[in-house]
Inverse folding.
């Protein structure tokens, strides 16, 4: 072996060994302080400074900040975090850098508005974000729909929701369902049918699989809430007629002339406890339900798409 | 005359290729293909935007860096290697040498940008599966980036004609940064009065306005651009480049090369 070949072999071996050792060592160091990541750090919180520092490449910086906002929300959501302190500033920076980045408004509002752990629980900031988006993209009906959605679902502000849908319905290239929603919300607020219409509209108007999946889950959970509310009313009627609670769901079904024991969207029968409460068997399958939750139930980590 | 400029330009181009300048295309290809594949996994609904934004921004930045770091050495390297004396001992005028060098560097950047543009369109086809009519505006953004390169090339050559490579790089890069803030300079000028107003206004108009040539965000959102902007930007870049190149020729003509 010539001296040149020997040097090449030794240097190559040193390179591979040193690089492997440094990677392994860094992995060990990361385990010493696993929380020392960038996710909670926003070094520059001023949107204007970030815009200046981008040297005109604000579109690219907006994409980077939007990706960061998605990653931040996703990781906090998986951890079932109670706070999302950096989410609103990240979205503000993103939309200041690129006011035409419509997905940042649409998804950003759905990240900000719902209560933790499904969102940041900041519906007012979601409204601010959407209004900023509408000011810069006044002809995009999606933004009016999403703002009305936040008003209706998260703030229970049916008057503003109806007014926003109405404004969106007047746009030149709008979707016809905005007009229907405006009328429906103005006439009958807070009922299951209107909520079902909104989630159906969300499902039909989005191409994003996560949003469609979320809409499907909400529609399933709305069905459970509606079933439990109706069954609970049936239990009350049974009690008024017979002076006692029904002994079982079968007895209630027979008294109400139902074709069988009512089942949830997963096909599992609803339960009736000793206190006459109608309950679902597996509340973990319905993360957004507000009715039929067994007393003392604590929700597990959220199910992610693709997870078993 | 034109033949002499052509030969100097061709040699400048060949020298840049020999210096492995076009190797940056590999980095660009890796960056773009990585972004096209990864962004869909880690973000939401911005795959197309990222390809256009990242592709054109990287194309612009790579070009600016190449323009500065090659441009600053075009004259000084010839003096250092004493090849300038061989060239100028032939029937070649000094201004022809400067213009030839400019054309060679601009040609290198145009070839480089064209290869990158093919990569951008390839990545766009990968994420969007088809081209739409609004995608044609990307060509306008590319054209504006090339106009930007012409200005940067002329500035690098201008500083290179009288200064050291290090100082030339600092000056050219500073002007690139300042030119990116030119809208702010105008805003600052409008807020001031008297001498400060005149000084700020003069600075705002003398410093190259790169922000007017940056339409990357607009084309990423498929927003149309006015024909007036295209025509006016073309003339602005040509006049500015001609002015700076004239300055470079004036200085180089009078420079003592002994």
């Amino acid at each position: 072996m010539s001296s040149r070949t020997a040097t090449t072999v030794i240097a190559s071996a040193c390179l591979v060994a040193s690089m492997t050792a440094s990677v392994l060592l860094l992995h060990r160091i990361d385990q010493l302080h696993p929380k020392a990541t960038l996710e909670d750090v926003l070094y520059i919180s001023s949107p204007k400074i970030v815009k200046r520092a981008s040297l005109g490449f604000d579109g690219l910086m907006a994409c980077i900040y939007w990706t960061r906002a998605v990653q931040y929300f996703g990781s906090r959501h998986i951890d079932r975090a109670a706070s999302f302190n950096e989410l609103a500033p990240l979205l503000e920076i993103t939309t200041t850098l690129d006011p035409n980045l419509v997905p940042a408004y649409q998804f950003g509002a759905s990240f900000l508005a719902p209560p933790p752990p499904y969102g940041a629980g900041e519906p007012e900031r979601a409204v601010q974000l959407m209004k900023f988006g509408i000011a810069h993209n006044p002809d995009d009906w999606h933004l009016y729909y999403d703002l009305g959605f936040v008003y209706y679902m998260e703030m229970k502000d049916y008057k503003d929701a109806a007014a926003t849908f109405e404004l969106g319905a007047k746009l030149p290239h709008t979707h016809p369902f905005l007009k229907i929603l405006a009328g429906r919300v103005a006439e009958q607020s807070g009922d299951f049918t209107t909520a079902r219409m909104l989630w159906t509209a969300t499902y039909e108007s989005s191409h994003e699989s996560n949003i469609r999946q979320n809409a499907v889950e909400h529609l399933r959970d709305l069905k459970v809430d509606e079933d439990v509310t109706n069954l609970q009313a049936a239990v009350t009627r049974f009690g008024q007629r017979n002076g006692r609670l029904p002994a079982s769901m079968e007895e209630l079904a027979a008294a109400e002339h139902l074709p069988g024991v009512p089942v949830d969207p997963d096909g599992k029968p609803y339960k009736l406890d000793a206190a006459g409460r109608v309950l679902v068997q597996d509340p973990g399958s319905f993360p957004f339900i507000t009715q039929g939750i067994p007393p003392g139930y604590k929700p597990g980590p959220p199910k992610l798409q693709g997870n078993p | 005359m034109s033949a002499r400029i052509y030969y100097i330009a061709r040699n400048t181009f060949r020298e840049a290729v020999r210096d492995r300048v076009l190797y940056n295309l590999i980095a660009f290809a890796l960056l773009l293909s990585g972004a096209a594949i990864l962004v869909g996994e880690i973000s939401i609904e911005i795959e197309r935007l990222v390809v256009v934004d990242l592709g054109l921004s990287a194309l612009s930045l790579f070009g600016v860096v190449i323009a500065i770091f090659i441009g600053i050495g075009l004259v000084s390297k010839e003096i250092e290697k004493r090849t300038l004396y061989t060239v100028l001992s032939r029937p070649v005028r000094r201004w022809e040498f400067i213009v030839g060098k400019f054309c060679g560097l601009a040609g290198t950047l145009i070839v480089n940008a064209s290869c990158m543009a093919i990569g951008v369109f390839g990545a766009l086809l990968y994420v969007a599966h088809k081209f739409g009519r609004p995608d044609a505006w990307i060509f306008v953004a590319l054209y504006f980036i090339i106009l930007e390169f012409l200005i940067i090339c002329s500035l690098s050559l201008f500083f290179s004609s009288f200064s050291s490579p290090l100082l030339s790089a600092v000056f050219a890069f500073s002007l690139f940064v300042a030119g990116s803030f030119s809208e702010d300079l105008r805003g600052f000028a409008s807020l001031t009065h008297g001498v400060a107003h005149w000084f700020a206004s003069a600075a705002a108009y003398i410093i190259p306005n790169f922000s007017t040539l940056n339409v990357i965000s607009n084309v990423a959102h498929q927003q149309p651009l006015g024909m007036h902007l295209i025509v006016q930007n073309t003339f602005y870049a040509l006049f500015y480049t001609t002015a700076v190149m004239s300055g470079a020729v004036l200085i180089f003509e009078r420079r003592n090369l002994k």
